[in-house]
Structure formats: C-alpha cells, structure tokens
Task: structure prediction
Amino acid sequence: MRSLPRHPGLRLSGVFAGVSTVLLGVSTLLVGVSALLGISAPGASAATADDQAPDRNFTIRDPRITESSGLAASRAHPGVYWTHNDSDDGPYVYAVDSRTGETVATITLRGVGDPRDVEAISVGPDGDVYVGDIGDNLGGSWDHVWIYRFPEPEQLKDATVRATQFTVKYADGPRDAEALMVDPKTGRVYIASKNEDGGGLYEGPARLTATGTNVFRRIGEVPWVTDGAFSPDGKELVLRSYFSARGYAWKNGRLGADHRVRAPIQGQAESVTYTADGSALMFGSEGGESGVERVDLDKDSGGSSSGSGGTSSGGSGAAGGPGTDAEEGKVTVGAVVLVGAAVLFFGFKRLRRKG
Result:
C-alpha cells in the first residue's frame, strides 16, 4: 500500500500508517479468500518459476523494493525489468533480472531534487528510461508533477547518472495519476489519471522541454488506472486497474476500440508492461518479495491481446478471460469480495484526505 506523499504543511501520522498496514493485510486476506473460491493468486507460481528462463513469472527478491509501483521491460538487456519504489525511497531505479528475481543494477538519479510520489516507468524509442513522479494521494493538491529521463545504461551495474527533469502540469488542473506510457513509435509521453469515478488519458507535447512547463491535455476517458503500457509495435495500449485490464486499439495518437485483457488476481495490483518481444504482458504488484506474473497474448492477434485472452504461463487464475459456467461463477463471487475490498480502500482513502 502506498505511503502518503510529503506535502507542505502536512506530516504523516501514526493513524495513517496504521490504516495503510490494515489495508495491506485486508488485501492479502482477500487473495487467500479468492484462492479458496478457485481463483488462485500468483505468489506460489512466481516463487517456483524456472530461474533460467527470462520473461517468466518471477519474484522480486531485493528487500529494498517493498512498493514496486511501476514496471518496464528493458530494451537493451533482454529479460531485465526496471522498477522503483512508490514513496519516500529517494531517486533510485532498480534493474531486476527476471531469471532470478535479483537486482542487477541500482541507478541513482542525480539532478532531480527529492522525488515525491514515483508511480510509473517506461522505456522510450530513444533508448531512454522515463520515470513518472506523478502520484498525488491528496486528490490533486500538487500544482505540478515531474518526469525524469535518463539513458538506459549499456552495462548493468550500480551507477549514478545525471537525469533530465521535466515539469508537468495538466491543462484542466491538478490530479492524481499512476500510469505513464511512452509511445514506442513517436516518443510522445502519455499519462492516465485516476479517481473514484474514472480518469482521463493525457497527451504531452510532441517533445518535452526541460526549460519550461510541459502541459498535458486530456484526449480521452479511461477507467480507474494503476498502470499502462504500449505494445512494442505501437498498435495497442493496455491499461490495468486493481481488478482488471483493458486493451485499446491505438492509431494516430488516439484510443480506438477496447476489449478485455486477461489479468492475474494480485494483492496490490500496481504495474504492467509488455515483454520486449511483445509476446506477453507482465503484471506486477506491491509488497515485500512481490510477484510478477506473465500472461501470454493471443498469437492470432499479431502480438496484441484479444478479448479471448491468453494463458498465464504460470497457470494461475486471471480475470478477463472466458471459462466454463462454474469458473465464471467463481470469478463472480471473487469479484464481489474484491469490490468489497475496494469500498474499504476508498473509504479509508477519504479518511486519509480528511486527516
């Protein structure tokens, strides 16, 4: 569960920290209940994945990574995934090898100030890594947020790199967001905002500027989103939430027809990325030793996910795909339980804001 980001005039209270702990416990309990209902969670399969096979289910082993809030497949290093913590961790980005779950490089960003609420990460066609310091747990109180960019290193080792910092504002006012996606063809940056009633897809300028403010403009409506990713061919955009995922046809920088995408049931569903070859989606979650689960895409769809969905290589339960009547009944019951968790989550969140 995310920590409350630092804010002028506000301090974290013991009550807020306690609420976060309770919610994480409730989330974990719900995963166990889902398993009893026939909807298995990814944790067990992730822990037993073949350590020598890249881009398969894996567990993030680094004890420093307790709030993995974003995930991006490396373009320069096959089988490696970039991730980061949510809040209060500092300017760090981690490269995790999917073969072992171990961190193979820790990148310290220099020249970016003090990150507030880092929520997303993406790799662009220029070979740069884009980090989205775009979260706002206070419901849109920051008048600006930031994007950090640094070149993906040629060698995987601990290093300090100078990053470029971009100031971002939204044309229609401040808002909370957890998803940042870079178009793999044009290099344009997009952000998906979130709130209880849904969110918007925001388009950045054709080229970001480090000397002025980058205004992002709303170009579409999207559901509640915790992360998103473009397919490597740039033909599809996938957006995930806590309980589901949807794919959107992407053409000329606009959302097209959408459809269900299979997504695993995870305790704190926070991140998604395509594998570098576009053959599968990798879904991540928060928490210590959190699991990342692969969901294969429909081969008949030319590398993009389809309404019929794919199969998870780990064999764990997934939401959004077809099944027998019995399986659908189990998913329905599980969905009711998860919706109840959402109500608790939003209720506590409102209390946090009032605090």
About this structure: The longest strand covers residues 213-222.
